[in-house]
Amino acid sequence: MTSPILTARKLNKRYGRVIAMEDCDFDLMPGEILAVIGDNGAGKSTLIKALSGALRPDSGEIRLEGKPVHFSSPIQAREHGIETVYQTLALSPALTIADNMFMGREILKPGIMGSVFRQLDKKKMQNFARDKLTELGLMTIQNIAQTVETLSGGQRQGVAVARAAAFGTNVVILDEPTAALGVKESRKVLDLIKTVKSKGIPIILISHNMPHVFEVADRIHVHRLGKRLCVVDPKQYSMSDAVALMTGAMAPPDQEAVA
Amino acid sequence: MTDAPGSAEERLPEQETVAEFNSSHKSNFHRLLGFLQTTPSAIPLFVLVTAVIIFGILNGNRFFSPFALTLILQQVAIVGIVAVAQSLVILTAGIDLSVGAIAVISSVIMGKFTFDLGIPGELAVLCGLATGLFFGTANGLLVAFVKLPPFIVTLGMWQIVLAANFLYSGSVVIRSEEIAQVAPILQFFGRTITVGGAVFTYGVILLLFLVLLMSYILSQTAWGRHVYAVGDDPDAAELSGVKVKATLVSVYAIGGLICGFAGWALIGRLGSVSPQAGQLANIESITAVVIGGISLFGGRGSVAGTLFGALIVGVFTLGLRLLGADVQWTYLLIGALIIFAVTVDQTIRKVSL
Ligand SMILES: Nc1ncnc2c1ncn2[C@@H]1O[C@H](COP(=O)(O)OP(=O)(O)OP(=O)(O)O)[C@@H](O)[C@H]1O
Ligand SMILES: [Mg+2]
Which residue has a Cα nearest atom 27 of ligand 1? Predict the structure, then answer.
């Protein structure tokens, strides 16, 4: 029996009177693609923000590879190899693509220029960024030195996904990564997700797009009213079953059977 | 009904040409805005060069001489240095109303510590610089950790520092001759280098050095990129791995330190230590920053632009004075420039959203 790489137990988070998470549990297995589905406002983003250090749960426990972790910032989660594409993308519009990809983990020039004068190696970062975007098929971007605000919504999403895929070594979290993408670009992101998985890195995919979820997911975590309702196997459930679970039209299966 | 298709066909070519004209017109406009987006100091540089040429033609050699042009540099040196500090803060979408007061209290500490405590001038200078650093850090901590709006924090700090300055100094001026005798180091930035007719004070050199140094730091180091990211969108910056709070505190702290240097340079400029000096430095520095093309909404602009902004004010001031114009014309034109600069910034931002 393999043990989960990332787990959460009894997470709680309130925003004033709004309960965003209530005794929420979570498990991610090594090497799997776990889809998280749920209605708008179910608390999916809140859950993954807790996992990625973007917010501190009011209570509850998160374990990475069995060891309890307390991320107080996304930087700490990143240092543990957890990379996240947030629903809001978290890009700085006035900065360049390369600046954004390397934000908080900049590469310095070799030698004295880097060690003493702290000069950034912009060439190296730009080349890296260009390679990663090309892998994603975002060739439409003409100039890697252009600012993010000059990109289309889909291109911006591509930059955010490329950043997470390039640096994630332990877990990659994607909060609706295809929401703004066209058919072709969505396909590229799905392919990229499979590529990341083939490297053995587990992925958490939040999506409202059932065909996407059922195409790539190994397991589906159904989120409802701030907590995990159940986890289902996409091979044994249909898309309409999943939607029914999400909306409460169908009762969850016996938990023990799946977990 | 029957002739509808025909008329549509007739209209089509016309519509196309209109659309074509519009799009090429629009794309040129967009190209210009795109250029200004990446090179926000282009407009102030253009205004500066134009103003120098116009005043040069109107005033002749009285204006267009190495002496007069370097005089402008001397006159803007203090405000320019303070404006470098202001630039850092405004790049983070903040504002610092306390810069002038911090500069003045730093200069007062340098003077009083030398004469009242009898410590060596060098040590007193260090104490003055530390004072600037202290107040800047206090601003930064309040903005970053207590999450108060920068306007309010620095409005309060301005009053506190100014009052402390008057209480401590008793509004007493320390005279130039005394300083020259006891601690000439305090007047260090008043020393000059003369090249031909051009006169550069050390204060001017400090300004130019600070502008070069900050330009390098802002564009070439990770910290510099983080300053822009924090000003652009602090939430996005935090999520993408920037230590937003630490960046904010360091910006205000470094701003305070630079104000300490401005206080030191102020003694050089005046010769004396005067608690009444520099009262308008906060407004004048904001003026230089805004005319220099830094966005008040943060994340856009450059320190080079700020230097141009400060110089534009200096050129207008001297140019109009040599023409014998009422000084109010200077304020009027600078006021118009401020509004123009913010309009340009808004246009650029709107296009990018
Ligand atoms: N910063 C916040 N302040 C107050 N309430 C919040 C905040 N963030 C989220 N909430 C509330 O928490 C609940 C869960 O929000 P969350 O963003 O996690 O939902 P979601 O499942 O990601 O929804 P969506 O599918 O629309 O992205 C919602 O009721 C929301 O209003
Ligand atoms: Mg969400």
Answer: A40
Binding site membership of A40 for ligand 1 (Cβ less than 6 Å) = yes
Which portions of chain B are predicted below pLDDT 50? 1-24
Alpha-carbon span A49 to A85, nearest angstrom: 10
* Residue numbers in A near B226 (CB within 8 A): 103-104
pLDDT digits (tens, 9 = 90+) for A73-96: 999 999 999 999 998 899 999 999
Q: Is residue B8 part of a domain?
A: no
Q: Is A143 in the B-facing interface, judged by CB distances under 8 Å?
A: no
Closest to B222 (Cβ–Cβ): which among A78, A120, A147?
A120
Q: Touching check for B222 and chain A: CB below 8 Å?
A: yes
Pairing state between β A227-232 and A219-224: antiparallel
In a domain, B7, yes or no: no
Of B212, B239, B250, which to mutate for an interface test with A (greatest number of A Cβ within 10 Å)? Answer: B239
Q: Is residue B12 part of a domain?
A: no
**Residue whose C-alpha is closest to residue A203's, from A188, A212, A193:** A193
Are A63 and A7 a contacting pair, CB within 8 Å? yes
Name the residue among A106, A178, A66, A257 with its Cα closest to residue B243.
A106
Confidence grade of residue A216 (pLDDT, cut at 50, 70, 90): very high
pLDDT in tens, A185-201: 888 888 888 888 988 99
The domain of A226 spans 6-93+148-247
Q: Are A120 and B221 in contact (CB under 8 A)?
A: yes
For residue A83, the CA-to-ligand 2 centroid distance in Å is 16
Domain of residue B88, CATH code: 1.10.3470
Whether A41 lines ligand 1, by a CB cut-off of 6 Å, is yes
Q: In this structure, is residue B10 part of a structural domain?
A: no
User: A-B interface: how many C-beta pairs under 8 angstroms?
Assistant: 85
Q: What is the mean pLDDT of residues A117-124?
A: 93
Domain range for B119 is 42-346
**E strand spans, B34-156:** none
**pTM to 2 decimal places:** 0.90
User: Does A210 map to a domain?
Assistant: yes
Ligand nearest to the CA of A44: 1
Distance from C-alpha of A242 to C-alpha of A223, rounded to nearest angstrom? 11
CB B128 within 8 A of CB B264: yes
Which tens digits make up the pLDDT trace of A122-175? 999 999 998 888 877 765 666 788 889 888 887 888 889 889 988 988 999 999
What residue's CA is closest to ligand 1, atom 17? A45
In this structure, which residue's CA is closest to atom 7 in ligand 1? A15
Query: Ligand 2 centroid vs B51 CA: distance in angstroms?
Result: 53
Burial grade of A187 (CB within 10 A; 0-12, 13-18, 19 or more): middle
- Predicted confidence at residue A138, as pLDDT, reads 66
Angle between helices B4-38 and B327-352 (to 10 degrees): 120
CB contact under 8 A, B241 and A78: yes
Residue A126 lies in a domain: no
Q: Is A197 a domain residue? A: yes
Section A204-233 average pLDDT: 95
pLDDT at site B344: 86
Residue A168 lies in a domain: yes
Nearest CA in chain B to A98: B225
Residue B250 is predicted with a pLDDT of 98
Which of the residue ranges A13-17, A56-60, A145-149 would you say has the lowest mean pLDDT? A145-149
